[in-house]
Amino acid sequence: MPERIYGIRHHGPGSARAVLRELDAHPPEVLLIEGPPEADDLVRWAADDGLEPPVALLGYAVDDPGKAAFWPFAVFSPEWQAIRWAVRRGVRVRFFDLPYGCRVAPPADTSTPPEVATGNAVRTADPIVPPPADPGVPQPADPVASRPVDPIAELAAAAGYDDPERWWEDVVEHRGMPVFEAIAEAMAAIREHAPEDPDDLAREAYMRSVLREERRRHRDIAVVCGAWHVPALTRKVAVKDDTALLKGRRRGKVAFTWVPWTYGRLASWSGYGAGVHSPGWYHHLFTTGDDVVTRWLVDAAGVLRAEGVPTSSAHVIEAVRLAEALATLRGRPLAGLAEVTEAAEAVMCDGEPLRSELIARRLVVGERLGSVPDDMPAVPLVRDLTAQQRALRLRPEAAGRALDLDLRQDTDLRRSRLLHRLTVLGVPWGQRAAARRGTGTFREEWRLAWQPEFAVRLVEGGMWGTTVVSAATARVTRQARDASTLAEVTALVEVCLLADLAEAYPPVLAALDTRAALDADVHHLMAAIPALARTLRYGDVRRTDVAGLATVTASLLGRVCAALPSAAGSLSDEAARQLRDGMDGVHQAVGLLADDSLRERWLGTIGSLAARPGLHGLPAGRLTRLLLDAGRLDGPEVRRRLRLPLTVGAPPAHAAAWVEGFLSGGGLLLVHDEALLSLVDDWLADIPADAFDAVLPLLRRTFGGFDPGERRAIGERIAGGRAAQAGPVVALDIDRAATPLATLGALLGRHLTTTESSDSAADDNSHPPAGEHGHPASGENNRPAAGANDRPAAGEHDHSATAENNRPAAGEHDRPATGANNRPAADVNG
């Protein structure tokens, strides 16, 4: 036969080097590669320096992009090296596997979809194609798993190895000698006794038909394919038998392109059964000419140093010696991944598994992300996204990174809009993170990590539009039309704001108005208001026109106020908790709206509801707290209301629920209102012993939600108020204060006098204390504006008093002292 068949292991660096040596020694006229024939036109891009592996061929059905498959290539993949060798030398390259179009099209003789519908389509690429782990991407079965035996494992077991990976490394990867003939004989022996896979038989029939065609054109042919297929390609089979195997197969319309890939997706431990446990190690083996172990451990030391772990050159030297000693003891030709990993863990990581895991993630697997040229043929949506990424300086990266955005800056605002629009399209490139710095509405924090399967999502998103904004607009509009609940529509209103989808806003707002008119559930109405309030409040920051939304929001709030009294009757504990949460959300939303008429209407509704007899204790206590914070109730009235559920004879469970609702906003109220604290303390002491166990979980949940400093301060108050009492007033020492005035005057460029300093101090101390009725005026977090140290109220000097400054001094214990009945307060706060 004129062809030379090189049976390789997919993604094997030893096989890649052996193939290159054979091609240099025997240059062919044509090179046949195991892969989809529809991608032949994309082979020329392998010579482009912009196509940097790891990359993958993405194939998808034109009429249904959800039917998609990947054929990934790494720099150490034998197929990739063979393709680049041929393209750079002008040798014709042809993929000769069964066409992918035959996988996506239904058979001609049946109405039942082929195996592609169940996820077996990607078996076209054999082990080179791993099954995607994301549920939004087709999940083909691992072809190796569908075979009755693992040929590599069989050969490893015959050689006395329990790990096929280590056997292959010792025989092929580390020795560097061509073993194609021996591997072919071994595979033939294994296939003699193994049942045949029907899918493999069809694929190999097509391969043989392509070989027959090329034999009529060329005298020198090179074939690079998986070692499993070598016996089938060398076996003589009649043409009519191959034709019978391929009969009845139709070919669907498919499209192909190159997309970036990652080493993490090649690793089987990340959910892909590609047979490559350590792509980063294989990359090192292929790209490092000599001193493989030493260079690897030097890189490992660099990883540890980057994380602040002290690692010296002595560590590296000793680790190299240990790895080589382990290889000698185990009879291996060269220290492999197991030896260098064990050596690094023992010498560099001090036996700590977290450090070893760090090396495994950074080096063994690797965080490398490939790239494709900008002028690569792609769907219009992908081209638009690429242009925006370049304009906004947002480069896709496999390794997650943090991105802090200031929406007052044009570039950051455009970045935020792009990330939100991609989320609408099912491409969660960025995940929102809780803001760690500041509480302004202009700040967003994201965590970015690009995944290869996003390429499929983008192809699917192409059905909605040719640009990111048009596709997101079309999809949000469709979702608003198909939404079945009010909550779904209100969420879309916020999406329109965040993603700046101006054209989607009118239809979404119309759907909101229609759905709000049809929905009579007060819980649904309350759940819708917070998102609308955020949209109205933050629209100015994002420069978004939200005209018309205020009318809908006011209408929803009016319906909530009308329906709330009837919804608050005869509540179970679970229903009461749900109502409490809903009212909390509406109350915060009303504060965001900054509309006095809406605020008065809401406060009037909850004021009348809080005074209604028979209301469940949880919402009754919570409403009382909200009215107190809003200034609608004073201290004496709150204490009067608190006495009602805490009187002797009232059910303890009702009283505990009332206390839970009232105190769920924080415990500083008890610290600063001694009369209120005495009421709760006396009630706690008077609870009958047989009822205490029933209310203990409620009390523990209530007090356990307080900050440790709040619990400590409450305990000190009960113990006698030692830490809460203010110390002696220290008079201002004018002479001592005048000492640094000369230096300050020189720095400020003007003369300072003691009179000016004392006047400023007097102004600072002239502000009235916060609160008017024996309790502090609380803000959104229900904490007082000024603490026990008589500092000025927040806002007077353009800065707010923080919670840390408002807390009383810490005592010696972190829990309150025992109550009047010698029951420890630890039973309450846990």
Q: What does this 3D model show about the protein?
A:
This protein is an alpha/beta fold and 830 residues long. 52% of the residues lie in helices and 7% in strands. It has a four-stranded parallel sheet. α1 runs parallel beside α12. The longest helix is centred in the last third of the chain and has 21 residues, at 573-593. The model is unreliable at 109-148, 269-274, 722-727 and 757-830 (pLDDT under 50). Residues 754-830 are annotated as: Disordered.
The fraction of residues in strands falls at: 5-15%
N-to-C CA distance: 82 Å
Low-pLDDT stretches are 109-148, 269-274, 722-727, 757-830
Assign a percent range to the helix content: 40-55%
> Could you say which structural class the secondary elements and strand pairing correspond to?
alpha/beta
Per the principal axes of the C-alpha atoms, what is the gross shape? elongated
* Averaged pLDDT: 78
Evaluate the radius of gyration: 36 Å
Q: What is the helix tally?
A: 38
The order of strands across the largest sheet is 1-6-2-5
Number of strands: 10
* Main sheet specs: 4 strands, parallel
Care to give the gist of this entry?
With 830 residues, the protein is an alpha/beta fold. Helix content is 52%, strand content 7%. The radius of gyration is 36 Å and the shape is elongated.
Defining key terms:
830 residues; alpha/beta; four-stranded parallel beta sheet; three-stranded antiparallel beta sheet; 38 helices; 10 strands; 7% strand; elongated; DUF5682
